[in-house]
Input
Amino acid sequence: MYVIEILYLDLDQIYKSGQVFRWIKLKDGKYIVINKDKTVKVEQKKTRFMFDCSEEDFYNVWWKYFDLQTDYSIPNYAISSIGKEEKIAATRGKGIHILNQDLFEIIISCSLETATSVQRVSQMVNGIAKKCGIKHKNAMREAGQVIWYEFPTVDQIIEKQDSLTAQETGYKHDMIIDLCKSIRDGWLDFDVLRTLDYYAAKSYLTDFNGIGPKVADSICLYGLHHMQAFPVDIHIMKVLKSMDLDFEDYYSWFIESNETIRNNAGLLRQYLWYNEVNPPRRIGNVKN
Output
């Protein structure tokens, strides 16, 4: 067990921020987090976090995964200063971090996300892992025996492509297999992709079938950690419509003119998305 105090980190907010498809929720503030071939049970009590792992694993794996080297108070303060809507969103979502997730898993997850809701994508991604990935069993205190599946490799998906049904890939089966073959054959080269800046990476990704600007932005943000990326989906469009703005105006007026916000546009996007999708609960006429 490794215990640490962390400010500006909230597991529940990250879980509900649209970037997580494979966490297992045990209860509010307690999750089993899956990352490649690693898993850890994490519990939060205010700013105190208990990682059910060694100190070595915490710093070798989970420190980077949760992006704990970044001081999120700086962009949070800058975003809070933009305007009323942004201040509310940044206050309500101040514990959101942009995770450092596996690039291949994020490419597949984000490509499926255009088809349906985050919840449905989670079912599909976990279905692909169950059909094609390696099965693991872990005995965890309080959680008992946990069965989980490592997200498969490109070759594992191609090998078992005929077993994947609409339950796992929706109507995007052929597109997912085409992407896997492009990666296997070196056309979509991860080594090249990781060397590119945000704009070049987005352009590179949109050359591939099924990856439009929104999906490319999501991959840049969640898979490559390009914090300038600002994926625009129906929820963000709804937020901008409520402000009587389109994305181009919003970007030029509220993002482009401020370097800190421009370099953390993806975090601003997550705050706005979280606030829209997870509105405050109301008890009578009082908001919580």
Q: What stands out?
A: The CA atoms of residues 214 and 231 lie 5 Å apart. The radius of gyration is 19 Å. The first helix runs from residue 11 to 15. The chain has a mean pLDDT of 93.
